[in-house]
Amino acid sequence: MTSKPMTVKARRAITDLLDNIARVQPGQDILMLAHSDGLYGSDNLVDEQTIAWLQEGVRERGGNPSVLWINEPDRPHDWGVPRILKEAMRGCDTFINHSFTYVTEENRPLRDYFTELGVRYVRNFATTVPLLESDWAQTPAELIAEIRYQSSNQIATDAPFTLSDPLGTYLEGRIAPPQHRWFPTYASRREEGGGYLPWPEWVFPPINLSGVNGVCVFDRMLSWWSRYIGIRPFFEKPVHLEIKDGIITSMTGGYEAQKMREFIDYMDKERGIGRRWEFNTLHSGVHPFAGVTEEQCPNENYRRMIEHAHSCNIHVHIGAEHGGGDKSKYPYWLHITGDIRQPTWKIGDQLIHDNGYMTALDHPEVRAIAARHPDAPQLPPLREFAA
To answer: What are the pLDDT digits (tens) for 166-176?
Structure first.
């Protein structure tokens, strides 16, 4: 296509992505993946102008951009990595992924493959011009990275916690030690963990829990798996979980709760993915501007994915992180979440969220970085308790 001149906002966002996350250097080969079906309304949302501008930006930095457009049919429970993508990745220094279907959170073969190759893996969530120009993508990456670090830096292992919200959630338990392969401590920066660089940034490391008791009530979930469960990511009726000693003893609600129970039963019996009634992980989004309008993004699943990254959004994991199945037979993460939007989360004496407000937004380091970017979307005023 003939590229239009890059807008001021698009250039600001693309500069942030290419300089601060992809870190494109002269002579590097940069591979970008996009789905042609994403041009026509699928969840693999993308537009040609965004890809063209990214190519232009890579060339301006002396890099060599290549774009792989694919049109692979969705293969539920057999996603893997398309052969053409695997071959293309062999020849790149950095891989910038624009796929909703092939993502490292759910797809272990993709994660293992880019790790094996040693390529820099970047996931660009802002795949269209309206998304590039949104407040979400206009917020500097260094600011969101600091929010992510300072928020997770408040997580104290072995401390007691309480979590509540207006829908009726009330949970008690303790913070268990970290176990994630990329994040040996909860307060880890992306570059320390390596492997996966999302832009815009979205969540801090999964927090392990022990001895959880109480009730969890939620009315939405992350939209990658909701499609395969057969429900919308925004629920008509909240789902209620009762938890005793880290085990979900009851899941009630409307149609969504029924479909979730049926799907969990199917995954256990047909796919060998057990431990789905364990309740031992939660974490939070970190971006104070993660949300777009229907006009900016007509696709509901994509909007929910963006909203999932908001700093007010805590999500719990329904089931153990990777279940009890044979990972070689089912190399995907059954990542069913329950998302709440106005959490009050306290760990020991530390208030992490106050009725949906992430207190790390008031940290002096976060405010200092925000002050260096007066033209970017502005954080809310300091809260009284932080002054």
So the answer is: 999 999 999 99
- Supply the angle between the helices 48-60 and 8-15 in degrees, to the nearest 10: 60
CB atoms within 10 A of CB 59: 13
- Using only the alpha carbons of the chain, give its radius of gyration: 20
For 359-377, letters b (16+ CB in 10 Å) and e give bbbbbeebeebbeeeeebb
The per-residue pLDDT for range 116-160, each reduced to its tens digit, is 999 999 999 999 999 999 999 999 999 999 999 999 999 999 999
Q: What is the mean pLDDT of the chain?
A: 94
Structure tokens at 192: 């320390």
- Using the structure block, give the residue that is written with the tokens 């309304």: 41
pTM attached to this predicted model = 0.95
Whose structure tokens read 């020849």? Answer: 91
Alpha carbons 93 and 89: distance in angstroms, whole number: 8
Q: pLDDT (tens digit, 9 = 90+) per residue, 288-308?
A: 999 999 999 999 999 999 999
Q: CB–CB of 127/33 below 8 Å?
A: no
Q: How far apart are the first and last CA of the chain?
A: 52
How confident is the model at residue 179, as a pLDDT? 78
